[in-house]
User: What shape does this take?
Amino acid sequence: MSNQDQAGSLLIELTEVMDKLRAPDGCPWDREQSHVSLMPYLLEEAYEVLEAIQLADMHKLAEELGDLLLQIVFHAQIAKEQGEFDLSEPIRQIVAKLKRRHPHVFGQTKVASSEQVLANWEAIKAQERKGNSNVSLLDTVPRNMPALMQAYKIQQKAARVGFDWEDIGGAYAKVTEEKAELMEAVATGDQAKISEELGDLMFAVVNVARFLAVEPETALLYTVIKFRHRFSYIEEQARAAGQDLTAYSLSELDEWWEEAKQRS
Assistant: This one.
């Protein structure tokens, strides 16, 4: 059996397992779930996949991709029970979409670069939206997506129709401008204004990230993982000394932090 055939067979087995879990004599917890109740788990599994990629842990990545696939099958099973669609429908739709949006692979269109591929992709999406004049270019970016990701995505879309800085210099200058406005807001003590200006500054930093071809959500996640690792080292040193973290001065904690940096 080829790897492709084996994957197809295992996917069928997974749908059968899920069908059994949701059956009247199945698992009470699984039977109680709905599209809405599963939302937190879908997000959690997606972030665990991202963490595995950041850690370059392929064993963990395989495990977490399986957990994420389970969520997809779970939602499809619920939809099937409600008479809406089964797993074959999202698969059919994504296959059709991939073929439609890759005419340079499945059609006669010629492209010379990945930039042309992206331009064609947006043009095809625009064609798909034709007939609904009330649909905004930005409506395709989910509003419940994490804010950093939303900022990055909507900036990308605006840039593709020409609403963008000429070069990264404009993005850098905007960061400087927004930083100054934040400091002015801090001086006033107006908490609402401080929050607004801080958001503007973060949005401007995302623009710089976009010019540098750095996905900000992923970059920040990597920094969080790095901080976790280094802070854990500080905790280990404190435990080894038999003391609570609060027993040490900031300078002592900083020494361990620097040691952790050297080790990572």
Remarks:
- The chain has a mean pLDDT of 92.
